[in-house]
Amino acid sequence: MSKHGMVKAVGTHFEYEDGTMFYPFGTTIYALAHQTPELVEETLNTLKDAPFNKVRMCVFPKHYQFNNNEPQFYPFEKREDGTWDPQKPVKEYWDNLEYVIKRLDEMEIQCDLILFHSYDNWGFATMSQEDNLKYLEYCLKRLGDLDNVWWSLANEYDLLLSEITMEQWYEIEDFVAKHNPKGHLISNHNCFLLWDASRENITHGSYQIKCLANVGRDVKKFNKPICVDECCYEGNIAANWGNLSGEEMTARFWQAIASGAYCTHGETFLDENDVLWWSKGGKLKGKSPARIKFLRDIVEALPAPLEPYQASFFEFLDTLPDEVKADFDSNPAGRSFNLAHGQQNHDDDVIMSVCDHEYIARAKDESCLLKYYYQRCQAFDNVKLPEGKKFKVEVIDTWEMKKTVAYESAEGFAKVDLPSKPYMAVVATEVK
Amino acid sequence: MSKHGMVKAVGTHFEYEDGTMFYPFGTTIYALAHQTPELVEETLNTLKDAPFNKVRMCVFPKHYQFNNNEPQFYPFEKREDGTWDPQKPVKEYWDNLEYVIKRLDEMEIQCDLILFHSYDNWGFATMSQEDNLKYLEYCLKRLGDLDNVWWSLANEYDLLLSEITMEQWYEIEDFVAKHNPKGHLISNHNCFLLWDASRENITHGSYQIKCLANVGRDVKKFNKPICVDECCYEGNIAANWGNLSGEEMTARFWQAIASGAYCTHGETFLDENDVLWWSKGGKLKGKSPARIKFLRDIVEALPAPLEPYQASFFEFLDTLPDEVKADFDSNPAGRSFNLAHGQQNHDDDVIMSVCDHEYIARAKDESCLLKYYYQRCQAFDNVKLPEGKKFKVEVIDTWEMKKTVAYESAEGFAKVDLPSKPYMAVVATEVK
């Protein structure tokens, strides 16, 4: 167990029990525990040098593309009718699972443990609700003592709706909450239908989304931490969820952080042995992990955690030279702007808002600010600093992993030169 | 005038009067005609070596950021009360405008002539409707003989809504249509509110949008050509509409073409003399024009123009290996997929559809196909070729401007190797 204790949700962030901040930088290895001991060892070795402090993995084995191997053990014995009997757990299976989780704990890695998922070939996804609860009773008791466990009710709970109705999901959520004496974190992860993060038992959002523009809005709305636990993976498979560039995987981490939220990595490069990191582990091949490390170092050095800062649509006017602003106001364009925007077709407005979204976050105490420019290749920006304070302003090349000091001490609107290329950020930290 | 005659809209494409296809590859030089003769000459020289065959430019001068210069002449004399008198045109102004349009015509460049716009400092945007129509009467007569003119009712008509109501816009549209004996093309360009392209007088859509995922849908819906006449510009200014990378500007052209639509370029690089191509012309500095030339050559060599091909959401299943497809169908995930997707929050669905959109187009006679992969870095794709024919299949690196033959003759699903990087495309052309 970590010397800092367990991780808890506090406001829109995570902290250890001793008050130390925990900034999750997750990765995904769904079937980690169901690989050969050699592969598990190789994966744990990789994690030693990786930037990740959280691993999403499943209790049950996985059957899917690139996942055709049988696990060494099965979690339960079978009844005479061929169904699984959750009251007859197989010791070796659970010992192995516990072993892997403990090994992660030794490396200060949290385990976001997925209790149900749909990619099944054995019948664990299609048990009766009675058996689901019996399984949970055992699992929560068996693994609940491990400090680094987070309960993830499901991976893509909504792709189990043919088996588990919404009412049954609520029952599962309630059951987990009631059998959770140590207060492990609880979330539920979606495919299409975001699980309602406002629910009392839910400690944080666990989102699958492909566009992060609205995450900051939801952090504010729910006032809970949000982990974007799936936003496609860096890789080169044909499926559209598994062929992000290293640039784009990295960008989504920056977007999450600059929304006051968190992100989870995954990697799906074709492999001659079908060992894709996202499900089996092995070695990391992508370009994003080094950049995620660079980001993690920046975030952990901030004086305070970041909250989403929603710039008003018209705030850009404040950054324009006075004569330009006066022109805009005096022109038909300025007079018609609200009139036209207010009549926009709803869907067009949704899409335009995503395209125009600015990723800006500030600490609650306004001791620091992060603005992420994503694909915008601007030569400069007038960065609006929190009022009444002075800031050191740094330009961050998130891809080249370089920092350049723009100002040792700036205030108000700081005109910051940028190198006219994508994937830049600005970090401002208060100078006392 | 072109030896092929005037350009007309035919179906969802453009043709010259003699039946030769005209594929528009536009650029934007709003205030071209209001610059010094030297700058106009420099711009026309640049256009000689540029890939553009259409220029969007304004009748009236422009006042805006980077546009503080007075025009040499004004279009009308003033009345005693200080308002402009459209019945007293200034010969030099219109001669100059005609000269520029004719020079474009000599280079086989169409002129998308913008009749109204809001970025005004003189009062041309705030004339009475009576004067608007008098101006139009003169303008349409004065310039209507020029073969290469297209009437663009406005740049961002909706940013003039404070001056010109929707009813008045309909009146303007009707007036232009009624005073257009040679049948020049007619469109209207928006900021937020797309002009209804289904209207009888409108020959084609002239869109400002920042995301092209739904353009193919609209081409089908309206059965008219759509020009994405503004989708932000390659450059490095701070405004979010003017700092696309060369990659992204190029990508939007490919997205448009792979939607059966067309795209218009613009360039906004900071310049010590405030000569930004997008409004004043000068020299091109960006990386996209060379790539747009490469694309234009490919499009013009196709056996037939492309129509949007809307792949069904589930079509990807057809491209999976049989055992994977069988797995999907037999799994809870497969059984729950429609159930979950059908319940998705509307806004989330709109955004996810944009993220998942596949840019695929086919000729109506299925003699060719284009698939554009945008940011997807896949190592291969199973490309669904039109049935019952054989195709030469080429892999296109849209950024490096290289073509590689994958198959001299393929049919059905062609497994095409791709280089695991962004901005790739596949073109298939029928082998007779």
* CATH superfamily grouping of the largest domain in chain A: Glycosidases
- Oligomeric status: homodimer
Report Rg of chain A. 23 Å
Overall mean pLDDT of chain A stands at 96
**What strand line-up does the widest sheet of chain A have?**
10-9-8-5-4-14-12-11
Computed structural class of chain A: alpha/beta
Strand content of chain A: 25-35%
Characterize the largest beta sheet of chain A: strand count, sense, and whether it forms a barrel: 8 strands, parallel
Which residues of chain A sit in consecutive blocks of at least 5 with pLDDT less than 50? none
CATH domain class name of the largest domain in chain A: Alpha Beta
Q: Kindly state the percentage of residues in helix of chain A.
A: 25-40%
Q: What's the count of strands of chain A?
A: 23
Q: Give me the CATH architecture of the largest domain in chain A, please.
A: Alpha-Beta Barrel
